Amino acid sequence: MRSVLIAAAVGLIVSILTTPLAIRAFRRQGLGQEIRDDGPESHLSKKGTPTMGGTVIVGATVIGYLAAHLVFVGESGWGFSATGLLLLFLMVGMGTVGFLDDYLKIRHRRSLGLNKTAKLVGQLVVGVTFAVLAINFPNGDGVEPASTVVSYVRDIAPLALGPIAFVILAYLFIAGFSNAVNLTDGLDGLAAGASAMVLASYIVISFWQFTHDCANELIEGCYTVRDPLDVTLVAAAGMGACLGFLWWNTSPARIFMGDTGSLALGGLLSGLAIVTRTELLLVVLGGLFVAVTLSVIIQVAFFRATRRRVFRMAPLHHHFELAGWTENTVIVRFWLVTGMAVAFGLGLFYADWLSFVGL
Question: Does residue 224 register a pLDDT over 50?
Fold first, then answer.
């Protein structure tokens, strides 16, 4: 448990202390955010706010994870794991795609960076690489970081996939959630706060799996996962990094995470779901991200079919802004929605455990 606290604390401290340095450095370099011309008028005042703050979130997560290992280096059975390193690879890889997108936005002084094809190719390379590697590297018990079986709160046996089908599904899942967090990152602190809550839920889930791991204690309802404690460290470091960044990202934001942060966090969340065998549960835990994405899909599909709009504007948070809600009201209420989704998702996870122990 001490290692988890260290990962979270270091991630928080590094993020909260280095974000002001990033703000000053990005301002000197003129790395300011471009704003959509068709967005809410209140957002136009945010033009020029430093962006690419996601570099701080990614860096603080990696440092928090490494710090927890360095503190306990030399302890029996303790060391870097394939699962933890794969999660960091996915986060850094998706963050790199987002960084290129942010850089092109600033360089060309427009609100659009990489074109859709280039962004999807980048996500494809990172997502497929992660998926392929995740079904390799078995531990001494033959357990790999990921399973080729579709999962809810654990693997659903009838939904077993072959390696190729798994890689395709994993890529779609990773790309979907990274884009979902990206769409949600439209108001000050919204994506960072929501991501921190979902990451907190994965600290609980992965640590519970660690304490009820079939490799340690073969009991009814135990979990067959690889490196659950290392997964907890990554989730804890990510949560701390988000909270530290949120200190400077709350309204009025002094820095934005940009696509660098949103794609990295979306990749991390999807990776956590894959390695903890809770893929479908992430749809509940990250219900806000799902709702925001659905609002865009519905808006586009309905407009193409009827030339009319369902929402005043998509994504969903802009609809409520145009309906008269203040930005802070939208943010706090969406955080509350995320909190309820996380509580409900953890309840489903625990209910599954109770079904095995007969309570």
Answer: yes
